[in-house]
Amino acid sequence: MNQLLLWxxxxxxxxxxNFLYPGIAYADMLVFLASLFISVRLLIRQYSSIHIPRxxxxxxxxxxxxxxxxxxxxxxxxxxxxxxxxMKSLAKFTFYSITYIISYTFFVNAGIARVQKVMLNVLVLNxxxxxxxxxxxxTSLGLPYKFFWLGQNVTxxxxxxxxxxxxxxxxxxxxxxxxxxxxxxxxxxxxxxxxEIHKRIIWKLLIIIFSMLLTISLVTYFLLGVIISLYVxxxxxRKQPVKLLRFSFILVPAMxxxxxxxxxxxxxxxxxxxxxxxxxxxxxxxAVERLIGSWEFPLSVAGFSPVFGGGLGNLETFYPEVSSxxxxxxxxxxxxxxxxxxxxxxxxxxxxxxFLLLLIKLMAKNLSLGLVFLLAMxxxxxxxxxxxxxxxSLYNFPIKPTDPPDFVVFWGxxxx
Length: 416
Known about the structure:
Oligomer: single chain
Strand content: under 5%
Helix content: 55-70%
Order of helices and strands: HEEHEHHHHHHHHHHHHHE
Distance between the termini: 20 Å
Strand order of the largest sheet: 1-2
């Protein structure tokens, strides 16, 4: 049963863009079912204890701040407040805050080794599906693949590189960068939790890294580079050269495959390499404009509501009012691609401070994982979905049995 529940939570989170109903993804339903089963097993005490993470207090403070901001914005003159959108977003925040506590308890009771094993297998399955879809789209074999995208509101065009004929791996996700985001955070959980890289999992890591390289995504490559660099640095500090030697047997074949076996080697060199060169020379400013634009819009909203922001679920409603004043018009109707910028715009400086406190506590536990999580916040603007809360929960629980527990035991003995 524990194995099934782990698959429901971890693989279910990957279906956050496959919608069963408008606003309700398959991930929401699967995480709900898993949380329900875990709650029942907790009530009948099939687990040793309930563990309430100490940072749940910070989440509660953030929840109160969201409510307080709503009350202010709803009664402030000159400010529009879409109560329906606010209630939808508040319901999701409440839902995932509760499931965070439930899944945290479940992960601690299950143990890190079992959780890592399921995560590794989920990433491998994601990678194999992505490679299969890549082959299906790149060849004329007529292999079926569109059923993997059931419930998504995007077309297969997102799998092509900027309108060209070059296919990029996106797997079961809506676009390559989203696939890379999930794989990268999962890979960090595997590599930066001090695992033993042995022969049995080398081929699995090879599949994962190879599928990530097929995304041709700068964001994915950046996160992958950071993770590998941190892994190498950690093992150099711990003086464990054997692990680095084993890891080299993963990375080198992946690079050889991507450059020699597939037709994308030259394209990566021309498309990615040349673009990075232009960015370094100041000739390609699109990435910089998107980063600055994600902050420019929320800062403009702060002019209307400097304390509470635009309100949870209401940030986009301000876009028509301020779009004419924005210098960088790179956003899609106010769709901010930066979680920190979104929280600042929606919840104000105090909301951002409460959120940053959660990240600071995470980095205090494991600097490497915390750094990866922080950098990932600059690549997406959605924190009200399953992947964010899955990895927030996984990254938060104790790394080793000898580490001091960062939770309160509601009943039973300490496990952690």
